[in-house]
Amino acid sequence: MKLVLFAAKDYDIKYFERVRKASFPDIEIEYLDYELEPRTAAFAGDADAICAFVSANVGAETLGVLSQCGVRAVLMRCAGYNNVDVNKAKELGIAVKRVPAYSPESIAEHAMTLAMSVNRHIHKAYVKVRENDYTLKGLRGHQMFGKTAGIVGTGKIGAAMCRICHGFGMNVIAYDMYENPSLKDYVEYVSLDELFARSDLISLHCPLTDDTYHMINIDNIKKMKNDVILVNTSRGALVDTDQLIEGIRLGKFLGVGLDVYEEETGNVYEDRSDEIMMHSVTSRLLSFPNVIITSHQAFYTREAVIAIAETTLQNMVDAINGVSTGNDC
Ligand code: NAI
C-alpha cells in the first residue's frame, strides 16, 4: 500500500516513520514538500491514498486529478475538513477520513495559554526583561478566578477548555446546539447573545460552517463586555477580521489570542520573515499591543503528533479495505 503525504514537515516525517515502522510496515510513504492543490495533485502518482493537512485545497478540481491517478482515499491528518469537497469525493468513489480527536487537551491548553498570555502581557514582559527593563509598566493583568468563561462549542476541545476554566475557579457558561452531558455539574448553557453579554473570556471551539462563518462580527462584538478576552483556536473565518479590528479600535478587548485567522493559508508553517507583506490585515492585527497570534500550533504537542500518525495510518488500512468508521467525513 502506498501513501503520498503532501506538505510534509520534519515532524511529520519523524513521527509517521516511527509509527509506520512500529505498527504499519506494509505501508510505503512518500513525503512531498508540495502543498496539495490542483497543480500538484498529479504527484500522487500511483498512490493508493494521499494525506493532506489544513491548508490543502482538496476541492473538486484536485479530487478530479487524484481520481485520474487512481487514488482511493484522502486522509486528512487533522480534525477539520472544511477544505475538502466531500460530496465530490463521494461522487468519485474516494473515501475521505480524518483524525477527529488526537489530543483535545493540547488545543484547549493552548487556548488557555493564549488567554493567559494576553491577560498577563507575557509577550511584552518577555521582551522587557530581556532588555533589562524590570518595570511593571503595561503589565497589569486581571485575576481569572471568579470571572466568567464563555465557551462556544462544547465538543471534545470545548469540553476540555471547560474543564480547564473550571479548574481556574471560573464560572463556566457555554453555547452549543447540543448540551454535553459530561459537563452538567459545572457548565451552564446559555444563548449565544447571553454568552457574549456575560463572558470575561470567550473561547471559540465550534467548527466552521455556513452558520458559524463570521460569528464574531461587529454587531456581536458590541454585545460583549468591555475588557473581554477573545480566543480563537478553531478556524479563522469564525471571526470577521476587519470587524475584529474595528472592535479592537473601539477598545472592547483586554486581549485577543488567535491561533487561527482568515489570512493564514499562505502563512501556515512557512517562513516569510524576509517578505514585505502587501495589504495584510494580519500585519494590522499584529500592530496592536493586546493581540497575540500563533500560527496554527495549538495541536502541536508530542502526544498529538503521535496520535495523528497512528490514526491516519489506521484510516488508510480501513479505507483501502472499505471499512467505514467514526473517522469518515
Ligand atoms: P467537535 O466536533 O468535538 O465539537 C464541535 C462542537 O461544536 C460540537 O459540540 C457541535 O455541536 C458544536 N457546534 C457546531 N455548530 C455550532 C454552532 N453553530 N454554534 C455552537 N456550537 C456549534 O470538534 P472539536 O474536536 O472539539 O474541534 C473543534 C474545532 O477545533 C474543529 O472544528 C477545528 O476547526 C478546530 N481545531 C483546531 C486545531 C488547531 O490546531 N488550532 C486542531 C484541531 C481542531
Summarize, please.
With 329 residues, this protein is an alpha/beta fold. It folds into 2 domains: 2-102 and 301-320, 3-Layer(aba) Sandwich (Rossmann fold), CATH 3.40.50.720; 104-293, Rossmann fold (3-Layer(aba) Sandwich), CATH 3.40.50.720. The chain has 11 helices and 12 strands.
What does this protein look like?
By secondary structure, the chain is of the alpha/beta class. It contains eleven helices and twelve strands. The chain folds into two domains: 121 residues, NAD(P)-binding Rossmann-like Domain (Rossmann fold, 3-Layer(aba) Sandwich), CATH 3.40.50.720; 190 residues, NAD(P)-binding Rossmann-like Domain (Rossmann fold, 3-Layer(aba) Sandwich). A seven-stranded parallel β-sheet has the order 8-7-6-9-10-11-12, with helices on both faces. The chain is globular, with a radius of gyration of 21 Å. The model has no long low-confidence stretch (mean pLDDT 96). The structure holds 1,4-dihydronicotinamide adenine dinucleotide (NAI). 1,4-dihydronicotinamide adenine dinucleotide binds next to helix 4 and helix 6. The site of 1,4-dihydronicotinamide adenine dinucleotide has 30 residues, from helix 4 and helix 6.
CATH architecture label name of the largest domain: 3-Layer(aba) Sandwich
Q: Please estimate the helix content.
A: 25-40%
Provide the CATH superfamily of the largest domain.
NAD(P)-binding Rossmann-like Domain
Structural domain count:
2
Shape: globular
Low-confidence stretches: none
What is the first-to-last residue Cα distance?
Answer: 21 Å
- What summary fits the major beta sheet? 7 strands, parallel
* Rounded mean pLDDT score: 96
CATH topology title of the largest domain? Rossmann fold
- Beta-strand proportion: 15-25%
Order of helices and strands: EHEEHEHEHHEHEEHEHEHEHEH
Q: How many H/I helical runs?
A: 11
- Structure classification: alpha/beta
